[in-house]
């Protein structure tokens, strides 16, 4: 019998659709228990995870029966994909299923950081009535610099069209023709730093993207941009980001992802209520709607994979 382990939360309705012939163990906190995973993973043919379950070599080396990993999301930095490739383990992300949620998060963060509604609310309830003391801005006419031009960036560029925003993007793997089709101009990384009023990051975390936003990048920024990171912590050096804000190289930031999750004191002790920033606990892609889409997609792919699997 095909044995499937699910180690993080999944939509309960979607789970009803998993092939009834499978033996399914759903332990939504199993990601926290490395000993359990190391010991038990050899019993399973398939495993379904989100981003918190670390499927590194130390765990996978025990997975002698594993054929399929379903990822309820898109980033694969918690999975040793090289090991999987060498050992014929198929890794299936839920490509595109939560992009709309993330794209909306980017538009919402852009507007909030320009309108500063979070700071204005704070001061209003302190009785300060900050009608003219806080200067706010329009999104209309701004330049949005996208780092990476994959699924999410495309959706963001499409959404901001109605605001008359100019989009530029840095992605060495996408041609200028492909970008032009989406009304986006292909530029170099340094041009983004020079030209953008808003910078939104949508790249995977890997050796090339680790700390692409560090002190060197921040000090080249010309227009005191807003920075939005909903990709992966580690793409930005957080210490350098806080310094850049304090030294006015940037005018605000929204972080959904962090170098350490959950964030620790070393990070949040630097944050005060009057700062133009938004901090969210890795939820840009997790909405009620996307949770259903992602879960349905991975359950369907799991069913199909094992229906077609031949030893
Ligand atoms: N916060 C969340 O809840 C959440 C949800 C979904 C995705 N994500 C993250 O967002 C990232 C982007 O998602 P996506 O669906 O757009 O992915 P995608 O694979 O469609 O696009 C990523 C793009 O990055 C480009 N890229 C790769 N290396 C690059 C580099 N060194 N410099 C510039 N560009 C580079 C690729 O060419 C690709 O076009 C994912 O990797 C994932 O980690 C986060």
What does this structure look like?
It is a single chain. This protein is elongated. By secondary structure, the protein is of the alpha/beta class. The chain binds nicotinamide-adenine-dinucleotide. The site of nicotinamide-adenine-dinucleotide has 32 residues, from helix 5 and helix 7.
Tell me the CATH architecture of the largest domain.
3-Layer(aba) Sandwich
- For the termini, the CA-CA separation is 13 Å
Rg on CA atoms, Å: 21 Å
Indicate the CATH class of the largest domain: Alpha Beta
The biggest sheet, with number of strands, parallel, antiparallel or mixed sense and barrel status, is: 7 strands, parallel
Number of strands: 12
Helix content: 25-40%
The CATH H-level superfamily of the largest domain is NAD(P)-binding Rossmann-like Domain
What's the number of domains? 2
Strand order of the largest sheet: 8-7-6-9-10-11-12
Q: Which range does the strand content fall in? A: 15-25%
The helix tally amounts to 13
- Calculate the mean pLDDT score and round it: 97
What is bound: which ligands? nicotinamide-adenine-dinucleotide
SSE order, one letter for each helix or strand: EHEHEHEHEHHEHEHEHEHEHEHEH
In the predicted model, the low-confidence regions spanning at least 5 consecutive residues are none
Class by alpha and beta content: alpha/beta
């Amino acid at each position: 019998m095909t044995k499937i382990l699910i180690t993080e939360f999944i939509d309960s309705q979607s789970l009803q659709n998993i092939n009834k012939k499978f033996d399914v163990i759903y332990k939504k906190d199993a990601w926290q228990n490395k000993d359990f995973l190391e010991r038990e993973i050899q019993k399973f043919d398939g495993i379904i995870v989100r981003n918190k379950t670390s499927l590194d070599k130390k765990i996978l080396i025990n997975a002698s029966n594993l054929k399929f990993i379903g990822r309820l999301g898109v980033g694969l930095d918690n999975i040793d994909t090289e090991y999987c490739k060498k050992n014929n383990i198929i890794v299936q992300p839920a490509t595109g299923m939560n992009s709309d949620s993330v794209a909306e998060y980017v538009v919402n963060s852009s507007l909030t950081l320009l309108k500063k509604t979070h700071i204005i609310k704070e001061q209003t309830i302190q009785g300060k009535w900050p009608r003219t003391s806080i200067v706010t801005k329009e999104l209309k006419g701004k330049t949005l610099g996208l780092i990476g031009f994959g699924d999410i960036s495309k959706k963001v560029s499409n959404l901001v069209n109605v605001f008359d925003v100019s989009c530029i993007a840095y992605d060495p793997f996408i041609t200028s023709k492909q970008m032009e089709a989406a009304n986006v101009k292909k530029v170099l990384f340094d041009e983004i730093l020079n030209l953008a009023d808003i910078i939104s990051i949508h790249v995977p975390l890997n050796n090339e993207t680790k700390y692409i936003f560090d002190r060197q990048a921040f000090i080249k920024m010309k227009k005191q941009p807003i920075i939005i990171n909903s990709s992966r912590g580690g793409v930005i050096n957080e210490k350098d980001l806080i310094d850049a804000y304090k030294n006015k190289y940037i005018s605000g930031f929204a972080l959904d992802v962090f170098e350490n999750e959950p964030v620790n004191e070393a990070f949040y002790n630097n944050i005060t209520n009057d700062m133009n920033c938004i901090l969210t606990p890795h939820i840009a892609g997790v909405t009620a709607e996307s949770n259903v889409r992602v879960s349905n997609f991975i359950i369907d792919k799991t069913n199909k994979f094992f229906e077609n699997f031949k030893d």
